[in-house]
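Researcher: Please translate sequence to structure tokens.
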Amino acid sequence: MYSSTMVDVDFVEELRLRTWARQNFVSADDRDMEWHPVVLEEMRNIDEESQDD
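Model: Translation complete:
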């Protein structure tokens, strides 16, 4: 789960950000590109998961 985009984020903070991203998911068009990279990465992961269904 740990990614190179999280150089300054510890494991607990990463989990918190990923959880926030899942609870507050929005479509790609509605995302604020200033959100934390972990949040954006997790939302992209959700996009990919929904394409696999």
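Researcher: Any highlights?
Model: The mean pLDDT is 90.
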